[in-house]
Design a protein that fits this description.
With 293 residues, the protein is mostly helical. It has eleven helices and four strands, in the order αααααααββααααββ. Strand 3 and strand 4 form a beta hairpin. Helix 3 packs parallel to helix 8. The longest helix is centred in the first third of the chain and has 26 residues.
């Protein structure tokens, strides 16, 4: 249960008074637990109206559910499903930002007259002054790039379903005495196992999106967070942890490539000897040279 006291400890997944939040997995769990607590308190956004409060809470809950669903799908090998949800997450974040920060947007959203694209435009001026992505893009350029990239996954096309493919090979081909090279076959992931490279790439998208969500909360709900010193401290640590992760693993920014890494850069491991690893660059191999089964 969650009440409105400053020393509330919602959920049992994390210790809300613990100073350190080490590790990628704990950071993600901590962020989700924070969002659950945040949404359940129906906080008042910067706009300051009851309608904006209700709209922001409704959208934040929807967005939190999308995060959980996309993350679960990715970890369980349903990579195309996770990507399909990402575009909806972008729309939800744009709407959440607008109703929380821009007067009049909550009224439009309630009436069904606020498109996600309009919500994004309404917020550009608010974030443009201080926002910089990991690869040093301004807010407008970054958000446009994200939306354009995720548009690849709004419809059922090979660009989307190829994320459920991986390259299969005969371990005997790794024998350096063979001169015929390695024969690869593109296979569908019927087992729904986690495809490591694809999962890591999608995880990067989810991390970047979570960081954006938390930044909107930081800006739009400052007054609310001041009343909860423990949660505010944890909130700051979560943001720092995500920023550290993004800078460590994505120094040049998240890779926005429509070709899944399991196809473009497959990592081959010899099942007889896991220390034998080969990473291939498939960018020069045309579709005619690939066989999908």
């Amino acid at each position: 249960m969650v009440d409105n006291k400053g020393d509330t400890k919602p959920g049992n997944a994390i210790n809300w008074e613990k100073d350190n939040l080490p590790g990628l997995d704990l950071t993600g769990v901590s962020a989700i637990e924070f969002l659950k607590w945040f949404v359940s308190n129906e906080p008042m956004p910067k706009v300051g109206t009851i309608l904006a409060k209700k709209c922001a809470s409704s959208i934040a809950l929807h967005l939190t559910m999308l995060f959980i669903s996309a993350s679960d799908a990715n970890l369980q090998g349903r990579h195309s499903c996770s990507l399909f949800l990402l575009r909806g997450m972008e729309d939800a974040l744009d709407c959440f930002s607008a109703v929380s920060l821009v007067p009049g947007c909550a009224e439009k959203w309630t009436q069904g007259k606020l498109k996600a694209s309009d919500a994004a435009k309404a917020c550009e001026g608010i974030f443009s002054g201080e926002f910089r992505s990991v690869d040093n893009k301004d807010f407008s350029s970054y958000r446009k790039g994200v939306r354009d990239f995720l548009n690849n996954y709004t419809h059922c096309t090979p660009v989307l379903t190829d994320w459920n493919c991986y390259m299969h090979f005969d371990p005997l081909d790794l024998d350096t005495t063979q001169k015929d090279g390695i024969k690869l076959t593109m296979r569908l992931n019927y087992q729904m196992r986690l495809l490591e490279s694809n999962g890591r790439r999608i995880s990067g998208y989810l991390q970047a999106h979570m960081l954006e969500f938390l930044e909107v909360i930081r800006r739009a709900f400052t007054g609310f967070l001041k009343n909860y010193p423990i949660q505010r401290k944890i909130f700051r640590k979560i943001i720092i942890s995500f920023e550290t992760i993004m800078k460590k693993y994505y120094r040049e920014g998240v890779v926005f490539s429509p070709i899944p890494p399991e196809v473009s850069n497959p990592i081959l491991r010899d099942p007889r000897d896991p220390t034998k690893i080969i990473m291939l660059d498939m960018k020069d191999i045309g579709n005619s040279d690939r066989e999908k089964v």
